[in-house]
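Problem statement: downstream parser choked on a complex file, so we are re-checking the raw output for the cobalamin run. The parser issue turned out to be on our end (a line-ending mismatch), but while we're here, posting the original submission so the record is complete.
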Amino acid sequence: MKEQILADLRESILQGRRHAADEGLTEDLVGRPGAVELTKTALEQGIDLKEILAQGLNDAMTEVGKRYASGEYFIPDMLAAAEAVGVAMEVLKPHLAQQKEKTKGKFILATVEKDQHDIGKNIVGLMLRGAGFEVVDLGTDVPAREIASAVAAEGADFVGLSALLDTTMRYMRKTIAELEKQGLREKVKVLIGGAPTSPEFAAEIGADSHCKDAFAAVAAAESFIRGGKN
Ligand code: B12
């Protein structure tokens, strides 16, 4: 039952189907549950939020990435899938908020300048909120100075930076330089993520941690709270 619901959820995302009224990419699937309905069913059946995020949404987008890379999917297909993930996440949001205990620390989260990718960042934000962190999400294409100003204004403990393009990861370095310039670097831990980034890149630009996925992000943040070096 659980595996079937998660498999159907993945498929609805691969088909770019948000609602039961949507058609789908490869065949006419009108009337079959879409991402919204399947996410609601998953919650009703008591499937763990983390499993819905990981085995439903995350795995589906990883597959979308593979299909795009192999030429099977084009940009509109990716967009349709991204929108399906977006509406599913809206369904999950209030449930993740409910899980929140006392806040463990404040995150400023942003996709760096000139980068519009936000699915991974949003999943990270949801998981962090679910784990009890407060998250101020600045959105996408956020200039370094704006990120640093938000850190100062919010008194943040963590900065989470996302970049999905080879051409935008350098703005992570710029953001860290801006934090240094504004005398904020020592006040925050900087976590970075996104497909082109790596632990080596994190070390090179002076970030505190590279996280391969949202689970690693929560683990790293919790380790920093405990005083670990990650
Ligand atoms: C969906 C998608 C899009 C969507 C984005 C929709 C959206 N709202 O995000 C659209 C269609 C808009 C898009 C546009 C473009 N895209 Co695009 N896109 C993708 C795709 C298929 C999936 C990305 C994704 O969502 N993955 C799923 C999520 C869950 O994974 P993730 O982002 O890696 O996030 C996880 C971890 O990395 C980590 N993480 C991520 N961020 C953070 C942040 C922190 C703080 C932490 C701790 C962890 C963390 O945790 C996340 C959750 O587990 C990838 C292919 C791929 N395989 O990645 C291409 C890809 C990233 N895109 C690519 C390209 C080239 C583009 C365009 C330039 C295409 C074009 N010619 O217009 C534009 C650029 C637009 C712009 N200026 O940003 C290339 C990048 C190549 C490169 N290395 O530079 C890729 C790799 C496709 C490819 N194989 O060529 N794209």
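For whoever reads this later: The beta strands are 106-111, 134-137, 158-162, 189-193, 209-210.
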